[in-house]
Amino acid sequence: MDKYTLNQTFSFDLQIASFDIHPSAEYPIFIIGLLVYLFSVLSNVMILVLIVTQRSLHRPMFYILFSLPLNDLIGITAMLPRVLVDIVIKKNTVYYPLCVFQGFLLHMFGGGTLFVLAAMAFDRYIAICKPLRYHSIMTPLTVAGILSLAWGLDLAMILVLFILQARLRRCRTLIMNVYCSNFSLLNLSCGEDITVNNVYGLAITALMHIITITVQLFSYIQILLTCVFNKQSDAKTKAVNTCLAQIIVFLIFEFVSLFTILSYRFPNISTNARMVCGMMIFLILPVFNPIIYGVKTKDIRIAFSQVVKKRRL
Fold this sequence. Notes:
Elements: E1 13-16, H1 23-53, H2 60-65, H3 67-89, E2 93-95, H4 96-129, H5 134-137, H6 140-166, E3 174-175, H7 182-186, H8 195-229, H9 233-263, H10 271-296, H11 298-312
Parallel strand pairs: 1-3
Antiparallel strand pairs: 1-2
């Protein structure tokens, strides 16, 4: 029984795990992490600003795309800054309500990524498979409905997950990771039956993937069939360019998530490596999404180049 176990008067000041880092490496790691964070924030904010300010991007596709950098900013900001501060300050404590809030935001990020990518895939399906009806289908009301459904489902599922977690009595004060999550918060409970929590957590994870993967598979299969039967090579090129970025992002997210899960199944992997793997879920996409969409989305490249040219004049 460790010193953080069975504290009958639960403290709102929790101890949180830390990396085992040599003192000489602390500030270099902090600087590298800070640069990664600043790059992610600046590049994602740039895409948000372009979508808001450039009239050429005021289209349904980019209204939906707007949610992706916004979601990325939520994910990386909720996780990375406090980890970097803990590396330097070594306080390694977190206030319980803030821990819950961090966990909530990080779970929202994961679900939000899946739902937003599904919404973007549906938009590309309408644009490529039903081009003549695109504007009559993807009206502002439809786009608002799609985004409300995506974020609403994510919010409802995660909210219930944390309500179920909040009902448990706690007597432990150690968070067994460098950031808070539903799993680490459940480990604070005092031998309570968490079967319902585990079943619900697995159920919503499966449901999120079933819904979003079904939408994406349907959309991309229909797009593929349209390309096969469409003899116009420019249509095929357009389909590939508009969908490839979304497929790459989805595969990266799933690969990193799977890699993280597997890292906890192998006892030979060090604690530091496991915690880094867990962080990758909230780092990879916020860093690479702006690069991927900046390179693969022609309209964003053009909008960015026009802004740069205006500033030079």
